């Protein structure tokens, strides 16, 4: 499968999410932009950045496709993305993007270094976008988020214009 074909698959999944919840497109696009810029700032390799981009764009797929349980939707997203071979690494990121450094997240209650850097990035970028566009979101300076990730996000967000609208 070419990179162009992979990108088309990801875009079709984002389109599917947006068909159910129109606000999801802007949110997914913004989180992906924030996440890749943050990952670049933190020195992730190109391969890791690509999986991060996929995961960030699709992080809410379990919720957008109908999961009624907020604490279960990351697992449902993991299962959906895991059915597509090239998205399996992204599926693992999606599964744990709601975990928090202090152990207060879900679905597994992981803490600290148990959470992949990519999942930490997506989690912080999602919370940041919710603060800007959703009227909610967690305090990024709390112990719930990796402060290295938050610092990198705050540096890159100064030069990123919001993508889309919510």
From TrEMBL:
InterPro entries: Cyclic_di-GMP/3'3'-cGAMP_PDE, HD/PDEase_dom, HD_GYP_dom. Keywords: Hydrolase. The keyword Hydrolase applies. Residues 2-166 form the HD-GYP domain. Coiled coil: none annotated. The keyword Lipoprotein does not apply. GO terms for molecular function: hydrolase activity. Pfam families: HD_5. This is Metal dependent phosphohydrolase. It comes from Fimbriimonas ginsengisoli Gsoil 348.
């Amino acid at each position: 499968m070419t990179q162009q074909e992979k990108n088309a698959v990801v875009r079709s999944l984002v389109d599917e999410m947006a068909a159910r919840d129109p606000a999801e497109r802007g949110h997914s696009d913004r989180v992906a932009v924030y996440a890749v810029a943050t990952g670049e700032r933190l020195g992730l390799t190109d391969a890791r950045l690509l999986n991060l981009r996929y995961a960030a764009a699709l992080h809410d797929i379990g919720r957008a496709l109908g999961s009624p349980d907020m604490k279960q939707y990351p697992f449902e997203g993991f299962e959906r993305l895991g059915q597509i071979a090239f998205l399996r690494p992204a599926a693992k990121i999606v599964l744990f993007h709601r975990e928090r450094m202090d152990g207060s997240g879900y679905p597994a209650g992981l803490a600290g270094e148990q959470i992949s850097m990519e999942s930490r990035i997506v989690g912080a970028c999602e919370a940041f976008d919710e603060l800007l566009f959703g009227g909610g979101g967690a305090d990024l300076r709390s112990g719930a988020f990796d402060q290295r990730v938050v610092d990198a996000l705050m540096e890159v967000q100064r030069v990123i214009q919001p993508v889309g609208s919510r």
